[in-house]
Amino acid sequence: QVQLVESGGRLVQAGGSLRLSCAASGRTFNSYAMGWFRQAPGKEREFVATVNWIGTITEYTDSVKGRFTISRDNAKNTLYLQMNSLKPEDTAVYYCATSTQSGTSNNPDLYVYWGHGTQVTVSS
Question: What is the 3-state secondary structure (H, E, C) of the chain?
Fold first, then answer.
């Protein structure tokens, strides 16, 4: 059984920063790629960022490039998302997920285990 627990979401002003964490248990964390996705009210879930199994390759959606950084600490079984220069349009529930593959992917269909999400709200 795999468990993913996100934390770190809260209300923040535009231009501020947050770091999200995702604690993983129950599976060989360091064998698979991990990703962050988000879902804003009234919108579909969208890809945000992904990192490969060892943390050397990352991929981002265009809207967060240069502002967000995904990373992982395999010794701690934890995934991170550093979010800087936050904008109101970043407001969403953020989910972490674990892939079936070791390499990066922005395809949510390749992610089999999901957390329950953490709310990020950016005020203008």
Answer: CCEEEEECCCEEECCCCEEEEEEEECCCHHHCCEEEEEECCCCCCEEEEEECCCCCCEEECHHHCCCEEEEEECCCCEEEEEECCCCHHHCEEEEEEEECCCCCCCCHHHEEEECCCEEEEEEC
CA distance 124 to 110: 35
Tens-binned pLDDT, residue by residue, of the chain (124 aa): 789 999 999 999 999 999 999 999 977 778 899 999 999 999 999 999 999 999 999 999 999 999 999 999 999 999 999 999 999 999 999 999 999 999 999 999 999 999 999 999 999 9
What's the rounded Cα separation, in Å, for the pair 81 and 70? 5
| Residue 116 zone, left/alpha/beta (φ > 0; ψ -120 to 50; rest) | alpha
CA atoms of 78 and 74, how far apart (whole Å): 6
Q: Are 96 and 4 in contact (CB under 8 A)?
A: yes
Tokens of 121: 């709200």
